[in-house]
Structures are given as structure tokens and as C-alpha cells.
Amino acid sequence: MTKRKFGLALSMVLAASTILGACGTDKEEKNGNGSAGEKEAIDFSVAMVTDVGGVDDKSFNQSAWEGLQAFGKENGLTKGEGGFDYLQSASDADYNTNLNNLIRRDFDLVFGIGFLMQAAVDEIASQKPDNHLAIIDAVVEQPNVASVLFKEQEGSYLAGVAAALMTKSKKIGFVGGMDIPVIERFEAGFLEGVKAVDPSIKVDVQYTGAFDKAELGKTTANRMYSSGVDIIFHAAGGTGNGVFAEAKELKTKDPDAYVWVIGVDSDQYEEGAVGDTNVTLTSMLKRVDVAVQNISKLAAEDKFPGGETTVYGLAEEGVGLADSRGAIPDDVMAQIDEYAKKIADGEVTVPETVE
Amino acid sequence: MSFLEVLYFLVPAAIAYAAPLILTAIGGVFSERSGVVNIGLEGLMVMGAFIGILFNLTFVNVFGAGTEWMALLAAMVVAALFSLLHAVASVSFRADQVVSGVAINLLAVALCLFLVKMIYGKGQTDFVQERFLRTDFPILEKIPFFGPLFFQNFYWTSTLAIGIAVLAWIVLYYTPFGLRLRAVGEHPMAADTMGINVTRMRYIAVMISGGLAGIGGAIYSQSISLDFSHSTINGQGFMALAAMIFGKWHPLGAMGAALFFGFAQALSIVGGSLPVISEIPSVFLLILPYVLTILALAGFIGKANAPKALGTPYIKGKR
After folding, report:
1. Which first-to-last residue range defines the signal peptide (chain A) (predicted)?
2. Per residue in B132-153, pLDDT tens?
3. Strand pairing partners for A84?
4. What pTM was computed for the model?
5. Contact between B224 and A179 using a beta-carbon 8 Å cutoff
6. Rounded to an integer, what distance in angstroms lies between the CA atom of residue B215 and that of residue B182?
7. How confident is the model at residue A30 (pLDDT cuts 50, 70, 90)?
8. Does A74 lie in the same domain as A52?
9. What is the domain-level CATH number for residue A74?
10. A50, A342, B190, B307: most buried by Cβ count inside 10 Å?
11. Of B13, B224, B283, the CB nearest to A245
12. Is the Cβ pair A220, B269 closer than 8 Å?
């Protein structure tokens, strides 16, 4: 028994030394091609690692990549070495490898996208104290990591205002994924926004317990719409596909039906298309692209907010509503803008939790 | 909601949810009745869901409003061919049937995602525009009580699923083909002695299961998720497997079990708006389908009798 334990310990030491050894060599490499990465534009390079969603997930990974591309374009950088680039993670096991890979390729700033990467960013940051990293949707307390959070409740508040102003039946629905703090922020903001317009409106809240079960979203939406709800806000990822499917079905059956869905994270206009009409009222946006651009810009100007947590709300244009493409009339839009202004000015604070 | 309103919501929702499960579970019945374990139902559903969406997106301009039905056919054919892998491995090469089934599951997801990436250059497909929609049955919808229960807001695919369940029951129990198929699963050597080609029967059974699971997957993707991504089929194949066992390897039993799952699922969603049940914390409602399943399996159906030769490859001449 002791022999086996000793063997295990020995192999652990060996494994650890290989990993640590790898860290050591790459520093030298870094010094080696540091000067090679210079560009006539600005001397700054930035890259990101996606979580398992992939770079075209129609959600925050895609948004982050769009932010990097916009930043690159603005500063005359090209995709690849010395400019901007991304690596996709196929599973949780890829986070560390991908982060290491990008740091080794001498990117000045490396983003980890999504709260799933919190542990990986933390680990790599402590191994490479001289490199700059950033994480979206989570907090990593290291002096060389910039953390980015969003005030989902403020965007959801506007979604709530929009829903309350647009509803005809005075009944609104909220479909949540899992009952976790992030989703509760969506719910709290949404409820608060509805209440601010008309406290008599009833909000039907239901959590489906999953982010990837479209059939649950569909049945839930079916129940809500058949009980008189006319607008549903979903914060449920793939489960929300079912909400869209149900709304589109009602709209196909009766083109005059007054049913709407409010999308989440990115502009979900495409999801709502039914022939020539659309069931997407608007979408609550989380502007990961804005955050990625801002942090990159600060880092390029040598003002990298290492060790700090930056929170993006309405005032920073980090959250907001998508273009409704005419679904919301202009006078209603003006009212929504007023509420937005109140929040941005700090007149109204939106709670993070449901009372 | 009044009691009747709840009922008018529950029953159609349960049937709609159950349709893909019914078809896949019946596929499983065919395969396992012939003595081949089919854990690969999940993977076959994935293949069906993917082919359904792919066909629908590609040929929507050719077939117009009927595209979704043509896509079902395409999904059936491709999934049946895909299940040949399982048949070859487990019948001809006598590989472990569970391992081969698991391989089907892993391969299907990986292959389909790879193809999505190759064809569309992104992580999931676009949304299909032609899809299965609810309709009302003319005249019958006017029947009091039963009208709103069964003939309003129903899917033709549900009718198809129930129809196939009845058909499968007739085929398995009242035709020579069905008798042979069951004989091969119970006692392959006796069947062989009577001149039945065991290998051929098992190939046919596995391919039927592939075809039906393919239709099930395509129904799901074209009526519920409307696109294909890594999480489109996420455990439904295993639910179908459970329904098959719950239904004691009988087509009608499997259908009943799938409907029961659908009913429990719908109940967990509607529960929040019922007067007494809304007091219960929502987590209990969410686990309700699974608790009901365990209770039903443990308490009410008694011993499940699997086909005798299930899981054992048949080797000619070996005693």
C-alpha cells in the first residue's frame, strides 16, 4: 500500500515538473520573438479563448469575437500573430491549454470568455504573473487579471418596461433556465421594470431547470400563451428555442395573433422570423463586444485594469435593448429611453435579487 | 385554471411531447425483440434530427410546404443505414452490443456536428421555415370534451406515432414475420432449426429501429427545436429506452410509457398555476417526472421480462 502511494507521489512530482518545465521554456520563447510581433499599426496584440459554446454561438462568445475584430480594424491589426486571434475550446479540458498556447504565442492580452473559464484563468494567471489576462462574467482576484461583469438587471429592467408598455392582456411571462444568481438578476430586473410601468400587470414566472431542453420551453410557453400571456421574456439559452417555436406556431396558425418573445444576450431577430412577419419584440443585449473593446483599448494605452472588476451597465452601454425593427412604435421607444436615462443617471437603482 | 382547462392543456401537451419518444421506443422494441440490445437509440435520434434539418434547409425550395414530411423520409432512410453499423458490429462480428451502441451514440453527435461545421461553417444550423404545426381536425373537433382533448391543436406526427405503435403491435404479434422476429430473440437456435435466417432477421430488426428512431429525431427537430445543435437531442433516446423497458418490450406498452412520461412532464409545467400545487416548491415539480417513473417502475409494473436471448450474439452450431 505504502509502495503504491509512493509510486503515485513520484508520478505526480514527475507530472508536475513536466508542466512547470513547460512554463519555464515558454518564457524564453516569449523574449525571443517579442520584437518580431511589431506592426506598423499599434504595437499591441490581443486574443481570446471561447468556452464550449464556440465562436459562432449567437451569444456571448460570438459577441466577444466581434468586439475583437472591431478593435483590430480600428487599430489596423490583422488576424493572426501580433494582431488578434481566437482559439475554440471543445471541452472544459481545453481551457488551460488554449490560454497557455495564446500566451506562448506572445499575445499581450488574453481573454477568457464566460464564467466556465474562471478556474482556468485563475490558475494560468498565478503561473504567469507577467502576462495580462481578462475574464468575462466572472471575478478572478489576481493582480494581472481584469474581471468584467454585467448588470443584467438593468437591461432586463428595460425589457420589462418594453413588455409592460406593449402588452394588451396585462399578462406577461418570464421563462428562466436554471434558478441561479445570474438568471435571478434577469428576473429581478424584469419584474422591477414591469412594476415601474404598471404594478397591476401580472408576471407569470417559471423556471424550467435546464438551458438545453427546448421541449420544456415549448410546453411552458404553450401554457403561458394559452392562459392569456402575450409577451414572454426568456433567459433560458437553448430552452428558449422552444419558446420561439411555440410563438412562431401560434403566429403561423393565426397571423393576427398578438404574441411576442423578448430575446436574450444577443439580437434574436432571426429566431423569430415567421415568413414575412416576426415574433421577436426586441432582445435584451449583453454587449460583451463593448467590454472586450474597452478593456483592449485600456491595455493598449498601458492602462490595463489588472486586479479590478469592471461592471458594465446601462451607463457604460454594456447592456441594452436590440433594434426592434418597428415592432415597438416610436412613442413607446421614447418612453423606454426615458427609463434608460434614469438608470444611467443613477436616479433609479435596479435590485439584483427578487424580494 | 379550472380542472377542465388543465385537462385540455395536459393531454395535448403530453401527446405532443411523447410522439418522438413513442417512435424511438418502438424502434427499440423491434431491435431488442430480435435479441439485439440497442443503447444507440440516442445516436440514431441525433442522426435523424440532423438529417431532418439538413434536408429541410436544402430542399425547402423544391418541396415547399411538404418539405417536413419528405425530411422525415430522408431521416428514416439515413438513420436506418447508419444503424447498419450497429448491426454489422453486433450481429456479424459478434461485438459486445452495449459497446457498439455506445459507439453509435458518440459517433452520431461528433459526426453530425462536424458536418454542420463543414456545411454551414458555424456551430448550429439556421432555423427551418417549414415545420410541423398544430391543426384542428375538421368536424371531430366539435365533439364536446373529446374534441378539445384529442382533436384540437394536435400534430399529425402524433397521429403517425400512435398509428405506427398499433401497426407495430399487429406486425409483431399477428404476422409470421413478427413471430419469427420474436422467436429469434427468445431462442435463436430453435428458430434457426426451423429454417429462419437469424442473422437476416436481426439485421432487419436493427434497421427498423434505426428508421423509427430517425423519424423520432426528425419530428423533434422539426417541431420543437427547429434547428440542429449539440444539445438538440439530449437524453430523449435514453428516455425512449426507459419507455421501452417500462412498457415491457411491447409496442403498446412502450407507447403508454412514453405518454406517461409526457404527462408527467406537462404536469410539472402546469403545476405552478394550479391552486394547491403552486404552494409546493418548484424543485419538487421539476423532479416529478423522474419520481413518478421510479415509483411506477418499482411499484406497479412488476417484473420486466426481457427477451431471453437479448444481448447474446448467435453463433451457428454452438450449444
Report:
1. 1-22
2. 988 888 888 888 888 888 888 8
3. A46, A79
4. 0.83
5. no
6. 23
7. very low
8. yes
9. 3.40.50.2300
10. A50
11. B224
12. yes
Determine whether B149 is exposed, middle or buried from the number of CB atoms within 10 Å of its CB (0-12, 13-18, 19+).
Answer: middle
- As given in the structure block, the three cell numbers for residue A259 are 404574441
A264 and A187 share one domain: yes
Is the Cβ pair A57, B286 closer than 8 Å? no
Do A166 and A102 fall within a single domain? no
Query: Does residue A319 lie in a domain region?
Result: no
Average pLDDT of chain B to the nearest whole number: 90
pLDDT in tens, A35-61: 344 445 688 999 999 887 777 777 788
Residues A169 and A57 in one domain: no
Q: Write out A10-30 in H/E/C secondary structure.
A: HHHHHHHHHHHHHHHHHHHHH
Pair A118, A141: CB distance under 8 Å? no
A141 and A270 housed in the same domain: no
- At B64 the pLDDT is 87
Query: What are the DSSP E strand ranges found in B179-315?
Result: none
- Nearest by CB: A222 against B13, B226, B286: B13
**C-beta atoms of B225 and A207 within 8 A:** no
> Which domain, by its residues, includes A170?
152-286+325-344
Beta bridge mates, A281:
none
Average pLDDT rounded to a whole number, residues B70-74 = 96
pLDDT tens per residue, range A73-121: 999 999 888 899 999 887 788 899 999 999 999 999 999 998 889 999 9
- A265 part of a folded domain: yes
Grid coordinates standing for A168?
394588451
Judge whether B71 lies within some domain.
Answer: yes
Residues A330 and A192 in one domain: yes
Q: Answer yes or no: do A257 and A108 share one domain.
A: no
Boundaries of domain holding B48: 20-234
Domain total of chain A: 2
For residue A270, the chain B residue with the least C-alpha distance is: B127
When computed from its CA atoms, the radius of gyration of chain B, rounded to whole angstroms, is: 20
Chain B residues close to A222, C-beta within 8 Å: 9, 13
ipTM field:
0.86
Judged by a CB distance cut-off of 8 A, whether residue A177 touches chain B is no
Residue identified by cell 500500500 is: A1
Closest residue on chain B to A227 (Cα): B1
A154 contact partners, CB below 8 Å, separation of at least 6:
A189, A313, A314, A319, A343, A350
- Asked if residue A166 and residue A144 are part of one domain, the reply reads no
Residue B278 belongs to a domain: no
DSSP state of B154: B
